[in-house]
Amino acid sequence: MATRVRDALMREFGELRYEPIDKRIRATLGGCEVIDSTRAMLVWEPKRVVPSYAVPVDDVDGELIAAPTKADADAIVVPQLAGRPVYDPSVPFAMHTTEGQPLDLKTDAGVSEGAVFRPADDALRGYVIVDFGAFDAWYEEDELNVGHPRDPFHRIDIVHSSRHVTVERDGAVLAESTSPYMLFEPPLPVRYYLPASDVSLDLLIASATRTYCAYKGQASYWSIDDEDIAWTYREPLREAAEVTDRIAFFNERVTLRVDGRELERPITPWSRR
User: How far is CA 117 from the centre of its chain?
Assistant: First the structure.
């Protein structure tokens, strides 16, 4: 019997997964380089949708100190993707889903509590998983990396389209366009990036929110009723250069119609919780 590829990929979602990478990975903290490794791996703890870096202990310039487990699982609201609970980057690094020992990292910059995790798995013996957000900057080779480690099995695909796209909120038309750029980034829903001239910007309020995507760069937002509903990339990374200054709306938070057909609002980490 044929197997849907997504189902095959998701079958291992609840397992500890890893993949060696050939990139030199470096991290800085307090003005000093504290990680420098050409033997790094990407590690996905069970239920994690984005990977973390794992490096040999010898490639960490600092003292590793046993730390208590502090995360309170009951206090975490776990988002969903396609109806499945997932641990996205909004779920703290300290929420580990595999056996192992949390560690503090002591460097000249001070002590970073819980910034390191030693997994109790033979395949990762001698390696520690590190918290991307606990460091000042990360580099893949000589390029700054933002957001989180890049997944070699993840890609974005931008396709120019002539579909008729309308965006509404509480009966008000926020955008209408016949020249969207469709951005595919499975397993996320398709995002429709519209020319700014096709968006009623007078109905939107500029938001102070800024987020970082490892594949697209820094996004800035617009809101309605104190809820962010649209975003743009002013200076995207080269993979997403085509959507520069175009505007996309959260399918989860607006009524979006494509060629007259209303799209179902998907369940993702950006749905209302």
Answer: 20
